[in-house]
């Protein structure tokens, strides 16, 4: 039984002590899965780190009590605290890729943990480890235990991490975003495993995540945090279904529903409205003036992309890795085509093929009727380089951190020769900023001075300044918090409809695609499983794979959602 | 794996040919060998005849073609100075340089790695600042000054160690080694320390940087969360992962060891290839200089290959393909 | 003033680390002394008529038999040690910095291109780097020295010695820059802002130098300081091996070489004063280099 | 300052180390800066090689401790009647180190080997036209002209055993790849080779069957080259070696200051001088006088001579160890001209006056070329001289370089004034006249080192007469005339004779000879 009473954690910095979290209260009974949800920067990971005593330097616990059973964790000496770690409290991290030591076999890492907290001999530890792996669902564990971490898939590796966490049957496990890095199918299996362990072994779980769907599906009780403070806590159904704190309500509204299409997200009041303001419509006018009459669709038929696998022997040339296999797809002009698939399905390769970063091995591409050459043979001044623009996934790496916003936005203007006069370019760039909902004065700042959402707005502004006719959005919001995601999606919807852009919207999140796309295609291992109008696909999926995806996506039960 | 080695070998042949060509084509500017080979009273006519006999008047391309074809057949030519076959001269000197280089490298590893680990784990400690400063001073003093200082302190003042030369060597089937006798080790210590100081600082700073990097990785934090004993975490987990990048850099630094060995050998009169190379420069002994360079290039390429293989051996991700 | 200091983090970190301050003071003092040597130094050691042989081998002022005119004594030629050191440091710094700039331009250029184009071009650049690494610095210096002597007319040779030495040192340092630039460029190539630039159809040269280069300056800057120290040391080693600068225009390295001859003959100061001076210069540069690496390395913060 | 006493404390530690070394009975360990390149007596005509091989091989005649010629394998020699040349009667009962007997055949064979094109020493036999074996122990050398100095000039002509050489196909010195004679020896001398590791260690042991009685008690001689001067000195002071030649000038005081060690100081026969480009009609390196070569005017050359203050150079650079030189050989060498033994005094005013008189009141700039690794303190000397020249207006632009590039540059006339050191091979005044003063004449192999091509008809005329003059008084008169002419015309500026400084442990007695040859047979270790 974990009890936390008005816990406070502070981080000294050159501006004096920054309070990361304050007066946090929480109780987790054995066998209970307690969700801790909030947007990035809410301080949820800090709570977990404080409990297990792994606060990153130079943070320190400024106040409050943490008791596990009868032991007051704060009173423990560093050595005693270290002994408890792994024995009574364990932790699971987000990315299975980096949680395991690449140079040691699974067996070594399991055995060392078991032997750290019990006087089991090596052979006893090994047999115990094998049983554990079998228990969490790894087939022929006896042989697989000798393998190295890189020889397991993402899901498998997370299972091994869980085995490591439970091998000393702890009372409490702190899971920090355990399934965020996993695909939908694997995510549900891991969540099911966590539920089974909580029930059978009476382990208390602190499940830290930003995904409200996961909370809805698994958590018994939930605590909602914002900016280091607890907003609300209680039974999951009560907190999510009928939130009494406005922030929780706003959070729930921002979650794109899977089962029904809503035209616009209800966005919390303080979010800036797109398009208003005097200079905003200057940009709008400039874009409309540049818009040629017809809208451009995109047609791909029998597109195949293969990558040569690295040669390992002189004689046999290894079979090439097939990224896209005979893909045919049409984006009707002026519409949004959704492209859904799990990681490794080839979504990004398709985007790179269209934009010329990757050259297909066979098949043809047409943009609004004219032939679109492969990347290799497409000249640097080919019109498609201006007509097709792209918005990337990671806001932190899609803008050059050493250039000012002015440099970034003005680049397409002078490169495509739209505006030659420097002052004019600057005025237009500032106007575009306002069009995407940002203050024009931001033009002289650097990317690192903005939040993720703001940077994504700058990326959209940059794309628009090229006066594109076809926009590719590759997972534009998956790196953002739910509330910010809602704003960006609304922005994209408005811009698409105002300027009649044809859009290819790529995402692994089915709910988001349902809200955005007119038609949707489902991609799996480089092959199109199913394509069709979005509503038909979601309501009556033809392919089994689509059905399975829809079933596995964690989503809030319909009954909990407020009317309308 | 076999393909990887073959590819590297082909590349290394090119490197060695390039080194040979570069060195050979520039030797013409390094001075006139004939004036060194002949005495004071030798007449100009005799000197011209000797130049003709040695084929120095042939066009450059012919000389280079002859140099490479001879070398490929194992005929390394003879030294202008001592008339000895260059192959024997260099072969006699290889053990001295190799043993010196390897012992220096080992010293730098034995002292460098623990120091690197210590300074990484206690970044703010007083001892850490002390170690960092002294090694920094060590690498700021030119190698030859360090050499002479060691000679005077340990050789002349205290008289514990010999001041020059390589004695106490034992002949083991063509390889003259000084590793098997006390006297051999006594004459090896000072030059190895002088050569090692530079390497030691490099290794220590490298290990420190990599170790601090690894200590921030997720699998170390997960290890902490699992209550794995700190000692095991530092050495079994962190140090092993630190070694992977460090090994490649040390491989590259071996080139530096060879370069600095020239200075160290000339200060300690250590009969290695470096000293031979220096004497052949003074005497413009072109065949010896040419072969020395190719041999050094060969060692360098060999070390690179070994480092790459070590890399694969240590890192299972490269060695074991997915199941 | 306080908040400006706070806002710009590297400056704040500098003010709070004593080692960096001391190192910076020493480095600036030496560089100041070197740059203004003609005005500070009593005697111009390069002008043979400005000193005389009779003042040779005078000990520093705190030893007996010293001449107060020469605070730190004189060398075998009668040159005032302080002036020789200042002029020597000036020459060493000129050689060091110019060699470094050449190495940086050559190395970063090749490294960037190798990272950007990858594949065959990258393999060729790396093999060239191997060849350069296989040639010890002394040989590079010797060969360039030989070429200059063979190619250039006799009269020009003397004052071209400095250029020859600089080129030789630069050639043995560019590989570090190339390897680091290449590694950092590979990292940046995965970043989406580079892919966006490529998709726009921008010229590779602009992508490399306007987009990628500003983002890889951090690690290069650190190499710059560390290699400045090794450039100065290399000059000293080359002059020990008899290939460095002539004795009448001494650099720090030449002063140390001359000093070596007097190591045992009692005139200890001819060797140890320039050596201690060199150590102070090199150590302070290295400490600043470490400081810069910590400041510019985002992960360390 | 700890570092300071590093150099000056007494060596209790080192003395103790000597016993610890466990020196076996009378082993002498000695070192020098260069290792003899080869063991073949005829392959290379260079001082380090000939000096070392003089311990193993012997010539018909040899030089005593005072450099005088004394009988060796030849007991006596007289000029031939009726034709030019000399008859040598050989010593009987002499055996080579491999036991075979020494006869005239061996001398003839050695002559043919040494005068062959492959031998670098063939220039000694330029005057010889024929060699005839008269009987088993007499042999005649016929010369193209009367040659009073011939016996002196072949002191280093060493005799090989004919059968041994031909048996091991070493009939000629190695042309390219080494042959048997490069690494093995078979001489008649006091010592033979016990071990040879080129560039590392060479060991000599006494030759039992030596014809002369041994003055030495050395049972084993171990030679190791040490390139770095400071390391060599450390080796001596740490007791690892017993004797080293030479030690740096500035360390003399140190070694003398330590008990257990002593320094042998003498004058080497090498004279250091400045030479001019007599034949150059313009200055190469001058920035102000480019149409004419002022040094062609003897007054300018004399001015340069007066500008140099040898005493201060001696006091500061050489710590009082050098002797000023008036001509191209040091005093005491046969042919030294007592009559012209005073040199131009240090007189800067007279120098400025002479320059003004010659039309250069405020002097001019010129290029001074020197070596930096050939003679003792060569670079320091040139810097000192340049500053003295500058004092009188002669602005020297100094360029120093390693000796490996020096001779080719001088041969291409790439200088205005140059530094040169000359040690007379035959230890007679005729040698420098033949190589430095006679005008360049390639066929006759004369004036080959006269880089500035100084030429004076009278000097050229007198040389052959000096070479053939039997009567010493007449010969000396002619030499005095040549020296007077060259001094008056300032062909060269002789500066000083180079000091010869060896250092050894107290318990080693050895003899220092002016030609810097180290004879192991005069060493006693007690």
UniProtKB/TrEMBL annotation, chain A:
The UniProt record lists the keyword Transport: yes
Keywords, alphabetical: ATP-binding, Hydrolase, Nucleotide-binding, Transport
BP GO terms, sorted: peptide transport; transmembrane transport
Topological category with respect to the lipid bilayer: Peripheral membrane protein
The organism's place on the tree of life at top rank: Bacteria
EC number: 3.6.3.-
Domain ABC transporter: 2-252, 309-550
Localization in the cell: Cell inner membrane
Main EC class the enzyme belongs to: hydrolase
CDD domains the record matches: ABC_NikE_OppD_transporters
GO molecular function, one term: ATP binding
GO cellular component, one term: plasma membrane
Protein family per UniProt: Belongs to the ABC transporter superfamily.
Protein name: Glutathione import ATP-binding protein GsiA
UniProtKB/TrEMBL annotation, chain B:
Origin superkingdom: Bacteria
Organism, scientific name: Pseudooctadecabacter jejudonensis
Keywords assigned: Cell membrane, Membrane, Transmembrane, Transmembrane helix, Transport
Protein name listed in UniProt: Glutathione transport system permease protein GsiC
Sequence similarity: Belongs to the binding-protein-dependent transport system permease family.
N-terminal signal peptide: none
GO-annotated biological processes: transmembrane transport
Topology within the bilayer: Multi-pass membrane protein
SUPFAM superfamilies xref list: MetI-like
ABC transmembrane type-1 domain: residues covered: 94-311
Chief place of localization: membrane
One protein family per Pfam: BPD_transp_1_N
Transmembrane feature ranges: 12-30, 100-121, 133-156, 188-207, 238-263, 291-314
Compartments (UniProt record): Cell membrane
Automatic annotation (TrEMBL), chain C:
The family this protein is said to belong to: Belongs to the binding-protein-dependent transport system permease family.
Gene: oppC_2
Organism: Pseudooctadecabacter jejudonensis
GO (cellular component) term, any one: plasma membrane
Keyword Protein biosynthesis in record: no
Protein name: Oligopeptide transport system permease protein OppC
Superkingdom in the source lineage: Bacteria
Key words, A-Z: Cell membrane, Membrane, Transmembrane, Transmembrane helix, Transport
A Pfam family matched in the record: BPD_transp_1
BP GO terms, sorted: transmembrane transport
Location in the cell: Cell membrane
TM regions (residue ranges): 12-41, 91-117, 129-148, 160-178, 209-234, 269-292
Main localization, broad class: membrane
Record membrane topology: Multi-pass membrane protein
Record flagged with keyword Cell membrane: yes
Residue span, ABC transmembrane type-1 domain: 89-289
From TrEMBL, chain D:
GO molecular function: peptide transmembrane transporter activity
Keywords annotated in UniProt: Signal, Transport
Keyword Transport: yes
Signal peptide interval: 1-25
Subcellular location: Periplasm
Principal location listed in the UniProt entry: periplasm
Residues covered by the Solute-binding protein family domain: 69-441
Origin: domain of life: Bacteria
GO cellular component, as recorded: ATP-binding cassette (ABC) transporter complex; outer membrane-bounded periplasmic space
Biological process terms in GO annotation: peptide transport
The family this protein is said to belong to: Belongs to the bacterial solute-binding protein 5 family.
PANTHER family the UniProt entry points to: OLIGOPEPTIDE-BINDING PROTEIN APPA, PERIPLASMIC BINDING COMPONENT OF ABC TRANSPORTER
Protein name: Glutathione-binding protein GsiB
Organism this protein belongs to: Pseudooctadecabacter jejudonensis
Gene giving rise to this polypeptide: gsiB_2
